[in-house]
Design brief:
423 residues, alpha/beta, Rossmann fold, 14 strands, globular, disordered C terminus
């Protein structure tokens, strides 16, 4: 049986979504591991312990478990502080492996922090290394003006080294692959595109009136944003677009906007706290108080209700390698208006499942959203097609394609006793 060391140093795939260091990557690792486990692949996900109450080992699916390793103080830390704890993390991982007497046939790394550790163990164990970054530092810096969210040179250097040192790099979209080649000099022959997936057993359409009733929403048109509270997510542009939309709305009941995501940081200097304060100030400045609800993070099981309750889901990100929120929204039948950036260009089908907005102009976003809100036939057509398109992005498909990569790279486990012909 193939055994894989899945490394996700700075965030646990079982963590609650919507906070600063959790999001689509957590979902990706959890669902990929779960579906690989169902295919008789043993997956150990190694992550840094962030609290004292979590058991060292948590089995979350057949053949899939998370191992929480000691690496610095057991609390959430900034990713660049975690970088300093990588030697401790490596020591803890090696100690766990020796104690359990385990052998891995492949290492799969997620995010740049993990790639430094993963490369070390892949070399030591003499096994193949598969890497996925989920986001890229150079691409973030190309669009960021907020100094608190810009990435350091150390990250970009580690990403470049990992691209050159991995047996294969998984890109989330053709654009993701193109950017690795263009901005990092990654060899195209070592990159394979495998998009993310969506669990259509969870993310599926629910009657809109029922969803709104369960969430305590009124009959007004509803806009929805889901994601972390970061400048990178473009929430300020959405608020400005929403202001334009309300200005020209007329006498009908005015739409409302719900922002799902974020936590309650205790430190006012926390980047998320600073961004939230900026956004709340913008709401007041634009006269949107009473029309915008900052909901905070919600459990994943309730997200389908929010998607189903929404008339339009807006994804105004400055950069996305894939766009999981857009896919989840589509699976629930919600048309999506998104920035024409990164993987969103492939996830959202312009004119079929929603609209892609080329320029970062709030007026253009307002026009696109308004078209869907005012045209019931258009909304119904986009909604039906969104569900159809999302149905093609299953986690079974993702797991099958990743497993095919594993099988091409990894040697057969010793316990399988490979037959060798000496003819």
């Amino acid at each position: 049986m193939l055994r894989v060391a899945m490394i996700s140093v700075h965030t646990c795939p079982l963590a609650r979504l919507g906070s600063r260091e959790t999001g689509g990557m957590n979902v990706y690792i959890r669902e990929l591991s779960r579906h690989l486990g169902a295919r008789d692949v043993k997956v150990d996900v190694f992550t840094r312990r962030q609290d004292t109450g979590t058991p060292e080992v948590v089995e979350f699916a057949d053949n899939a478990r998370v191992i929480h390793l000691e690496a610095g103080p057991p609390r959430p830390m900034d990713k660049y502080s975690v970088l300093e704890q990588l030697p401790h993390f490596s020591w803890s991982l090696g100690r766990f492996r020796e104690r359990e007497g385990l052998e891995y046939q492949l290492v799969h790394s997620h995010y740049w922090l993990s790639s430094r550790v993963a490369g070390l163990f892949a070399e030591t164990w003499k096994v193949p290394l598969v890497t996925m970054f989920h986001t890229l530092g150079r691409l973030k810096n190309r669009v960021m003006t907020n100094g608190h969210e810009r990435e350091r040179l150390a990250r970009i250097q580690i990403e470049r080294e990992a691209m050159l040192g991995s047996n294969l790099v998984v890109a989330a979209s053709p654009t993701d692959m193109e950017q690795m080649v263009r901005y990092y000099g990654a060899p195209p022959s070592r990159i394979q595109v495998v998009p993310g997936g969506v669990d259509t057993a969870i993310f599926r359409p629910t009657d809109r009136s029922m969803a709104r009733h369960l969430l305590g929403m009124g009959p007004e048109k509803q806009l929805l944003f889901v994601g972390r509270i970061q400048q990178l997510k473009g929430i300020d542009l959405l608020l400005k677009a929403f202001g334009y939309l309300l200005e020209g709305w007329g006498s009908e009941p005015k739409p409302r906007l719900t922002v799902v995501g974020g936590r309650n940081p205790v430190d006012a200097s926390d980047p998320e706290a600073m961004e939230m304060e900026r956004l709340r100030g913008l709401v007041r400045e634009l006269g949107l108080t009473g029309s915008v609800v900052f909901q905070g993070a919600v459990p994943q099981q309730r997200l389908p209700l929010y998607y189903s309750a929404a008339d339009v889901v807006v994804v105004p990100s400055l950069y996305e390698s894939f766009g999981l929120v857009a896919l989840e929204a589509m699976a629930c039948g919600a048309p999506v208006v998104a920035s024409r950036v990164g993987g969103l260009q492939w996830t959202v089908k312009d004119g079929e499942t929603g609209f892609l907005v080329r320029r970062r102009n709030p007026g253009l976003f307002a026009i696109a959203v308004g078209r869907i809100l005012r045209d019931g036939d258009l909304h119904a057509r986009l909604s039906r097609r969104a569900v159809e398109v999302a149905g093609g992005y299953s986690w079974d498909m993702v797991a099958d394609r990743i497993l095919d990569i594993y099988r091409k790279l990894a040697p057969a486990p010793r316990s399988e006793g490979r037959l060798v012909c000496h003819c």
